[in-house]
Amino acid sequence: MATGRTHRPATRSRGIPEATVARLPLYLRALTALSERSVPTVSSEELAAAAGVNSAKLRKDFSYLGSYGTRGVGYDVEYLVYQISRELGLTQDWPVVIVGIGNLGAALANYGGFASRGFRVAALIDADPAMAGKPVAGIPVQHTDELEKIITDNGVSIGVIATPAGAAQQVCDRLVAAGVTSILNFAPTVLTVPDGVDVRKVDLSIELQILAFHEQRKAGEEAAAHEGAVPAPAGRDDSTDQGPDGDVPAVMPA
Ligand SMILES: NC(=O)c1ccc[n+]([C@@H]2O[C@H](COP(=O)([O-])OP(=O)(O)OC[C@H]3O[C@@H](n4cnc5c(N)ncnc54)[C@H](O)[C@@H]3O)[C@@H](O)[C@H]2O)c1
């Protein structure tokens, strides 16, 4: 499991627990799909199923937003999209920089889903001089020498690190010194940051390891079932069920 610090208390100042904040994007994704199909209202059960979350937990989460739905009608889809987007800070544009434009950085730069969710890729930065000026996803790569200027000029507060692990801390330090206060780290290393800086870590190999654990367990249970013991249980979605603290998506605290 990833380790490290998020530098945020378990409950934010406005009283929304971190576990609820971590589920808001799941609700938003499900609600956006409903909105695109022009569905006007949704019940807590339907929405919970679409988001992969328990419906009692969903109702509790929405109570933090002051959204209780209407008995017999459910929740207003458009209004909830607005409420959750506002809560997540998505009603404003967030310029992000991606540092390390190799296989992963280029794939991230090419991913259209950021822009449609309000995250504009303001710049692509790499240490390789041979890459400077080359366009990736239509954006010319800039050299790391320019990093501080790029952050300042674009008012960037969110940085994405997709460099090799050995370079990540140094890149992180430069981003933070230049004014970045949120970092999404793809490099397989634990970053140290000062208070007030949020780090989230994405590690797909950890997700695969968790799946491997369940595969192994299922195989063991099947073998036991063949011997007439316990029946194998149905599959589960661990990305949205992480114990008493609630559902957490594949992005983890650093
Ligand atoms: N989190 C995940 O699920 C996941 C998945 C794949 C890869 N990764 C990690 O992402 C990172 C990138 O993987 P990749 O396959 O794209 O590697 P890559 O070698 O293709 O690309 C790395 C890029 O970083 C650049 N770079 C190196 N040092 C730098 C520095 N100090 N500043 C700026 N740029 C620098 C290199 O020039 C290169 O272009 C690795 O750490 C890898 O382990 C994570």
Overview of this protein structure:
Residues 26-65 bind DNA. The protein has nine helices and ten strands. By secondary structure, the protein is of the alpha/beta class. The longest helix has 23 residues, at 204-226. β7 (158-161), α8 (165-178) and β8 (182-185) form a beta-alpha-beta unit. The protein is globular and about 60 Å long. The chain has three domains: 18-87, Winged helix-like DNA-binding domain superfamily/Winged helix DNA-binding domain (Arc Repressor Mutant, subunit A); 94-202, Rossmann fold (3-Layer(aba) Sandwich); 216-245, no CATH class. The site of nicotinamide-adenine-dinucleotide has 25 residues, from α5, β4 and α8.
Count of folded domains: 3
Amount of beta strand: 15-25%
Determine the structural class based on helices, strands and strand pairing.
alpha/beta
Number of helices: 9
Q: Output the CATH homologous superfamily of the largest domain.
A: NAD(P)-binding Rossmann-like Domain
Strand segment count: 10
* Small-molecule components bound: nicotinamide-adenine-dinucleotide
Helical amount among residues, as a percent range? 40-55%
Q: So what's the overall shape? A: globular
| Corresponding CATH architecture of the largest domain | 3-Layer(aba) Sandwich
CATH fold field value of the largest domain? Rossmann fold
> End-to-end distance, in Å?
10 Å
C-alpha-based Rg, rounded: 21 Å
Helix-strand pattern: HEHHEHEHHEEEHEHEEHE
How are the strands of the largest sheet arranged?
5-6-4-3-7-8-9-10
Identify low-pLDDT runs.
Answer: 1-13, 238-250
Subcellular location: Cytoplasm
Function: Modulates transcription in response to changes in cellular NADH/NAD(+) redox state.
Family: Belongs to the transcriptional regulatory Rex family.
Keywords: Cytoplasm, DNA-binding, NAD, Repressor, Transcription, Transcription regulation
